[in-house]
Amino acid sequence: MRAPVAAPDPLITSATQAFSVSAGVATSVIPTPPGTGYNSTVEFELDPPVRRVAVVVPSIDRQERLSALAATSGLLNAQHVLLVTSYLSPALVNACRSLGVNAIDESGNAFVKDGSTLVLISGRPRATERRRPSLWSKRSLQVILALLVRPALLHESRRTIAMFAGVSTGTAHTTVQTLLQRKDLIERGDGLAFTNFDRLLDEWVTLYPSLLRESLKLGRYRATEPNWWTDMLAPNNEWMLGGESAAALMTSYLKPAVVTVYCTNGIPTQMISRGRLRPEPTGNVEFLKAPFELNRTPGLVDNVVYPVLVYADLVASGDSRNLETAQMIRDQYIQHGN
Questions:
Q1: Residue among 265, 177, 285, 146 nearest 224 (CA)
Q2: Taxonomically, which superkingdom (predicted)?
């Protein structure tokens, strides 16, 4: 019996419809073969027809985020990929053109280029907010992060997933069911499995700064000594380093401009006194609440947070050297779930 064809992501459907209206160009959404890592292919009925596999990113709020996404997700391959998102501001459409990223949104804004064919639509107002799947909320992002940092949870109960992620069992269940519906997860005899770990990681990393990271901020401080933190150890995993500081320990490649600290019990007083830190909104030390329990990662320095969080912090910065380091960490330290 032939396997059922997965329905296209609702965002792809609405964005292609909006493009057809704004550009006067018919579009078709075609399922891609299983195992390709893409949900759908979009065909633009131009002359000649243009086909792109669709990469769905529900929200992009800054040009730096688009640059980071392009650098880490292969979107610069304009011969094959179409970015589909909820809204592209005029600045983002212009950035797509500069980066060579083909993209469409739910308002009918677009940059599509193939050879001498160019469709550029910019300035259409944001469409009325559509009801999004419950997948993209702060709590669901915690559940997805838990699965990304500990793939063994795919073989555990929803209750176990919820306990590790620090959410209710209902939230864990709803998030897992949505991932199953979206075909990000499949059920196997021994539990769940990722269908495409990299794609889910890319989507999570893109949304983490705006949907979850902002809510984790505890405070920002200024340190006068640059290396005050390098030989500090956290008692009982009360805090761990993220971002540039963690990456410096993991790769010896960066000289961190900002020290990022994830905390389980508020801002550690010993760090304030040791670093002689003083509060400053734009300081070079940031404290974040850990999204859930901190645990050491085998093979890493004891006081470094989960590599997925380090990677996400670096990508969120948009800095070119940080992006280069982020790719190193992804290649060396982030284990793809099976």
A1: 285
A2: Bacteria
Phi, psi of 240 (to 5 degrees): -145, 155
Which strands make up the sheet holding 217-222, listed edge to edge? 239-242, 259-263, 285-289, 217-222, 278-279
Spatial separation of the C-alpha atoms in residues 72 and 78, rounded to whole Å? 14
Could you tell me the sign of the dihedral formed by the alpha carbons of 291, 292, 297, 303, in that order? Answer: positive
In a shared domain, residues 87 and 30: yes
Phi then psi for 218, rounded to 5 degrees? -105, -30
Residues spanned by the domain of 172? 138-211
pLDDT in tens, 196-216: 898 889 889 988 988 899 999
Question: pTM of the predicted model, to two decimals?
Answer: 0.70
Beta bridge partners of 259: 285
Provide the pLDDT for residue 190.
82
CATH of the domain at 252: 3.30.460
The answer, yes or no, to whether residue 1 has pLDDT greater than 60, is no
pLDDT value at 36 more than 80: no
**Residue (of 101, 178, 169, 165) closest to 138 by Cα position:** 165
Closest to 49 measured CA to CA, from 122, 124, 119, 121:
119
Q: How many domains would you assign to the chain?
A: 3
Q: Is residue 79 part of a domain?
A: yes
Q: Which contiguous run of DSSP H or E holds residue 210?
A: helix 197-211
Per-residue pLDDT tens over the stretch 240-282: 999 999 999 999 888 899 999 999 989 999 899 989 999 999 9
Residues 202 and 221 in one domain: no
DSSP state of 65: H
